[in-house]
Amino acid sequence: MNKQAGLWIDHREATIVLVTDGEEEIKHITSSSGKHIRYSGSSHSKTPEGLKEVTSEDQRDRKFTNTLNAYYDEIIAVIRDADAIQIFGPGEAKGELEKRLEHAGLKEHVLAIETVDKMTENQISAKVRERFPV
């Protein structure tokens, strides 16, 4: 069985196109991470004992990171058995997913990573078919 996966990803959603022996299947995975707000400067303070206080910003960052990691793990579960993987999208998520794939031992399956803007499902499917023709 020959299986390829192409996916468009950002921090909010992923559209995955799986091509298996010429048959195409499209899956959507949505992240519950919401929008991540980054603050400039550091508001960390030390307690009188010299310990760093955990701020609400730290808690939000940790929650955002944990939510994204679960999102990436869900995507990896779908594409794990692909012989070749194509990743594209507008922002940082594609690089973050690549690192997670490397950690999962799947980096050698990644053929291409490309920066592209928002795309429709049909455009994503066409782009994947371009990379993995039948």
Describe the structure using short key phrases:
single chain, alpha/beta, Nucleotidyltransferase, domain 5, 3 helices, 26% strand, elongated
Structure overview:
Helices cover 34% and strands 26% of the residues. With 134 residues, the protein is of the alpha/beta class. It has one domain (3-34, 55-131): eRF1 domain 2 (Nucleotidyltransferase, domain 5, 2-Layer Sandwich). A hairpin with a 2-residue loop joins strand 2 (13-20) and strand 3. The mean pLDDT is 87.
In short, what is this structure?
By secondary structure, the protein is α/β, with parallel strands linked by helices. The protein contains three helices and five strands.
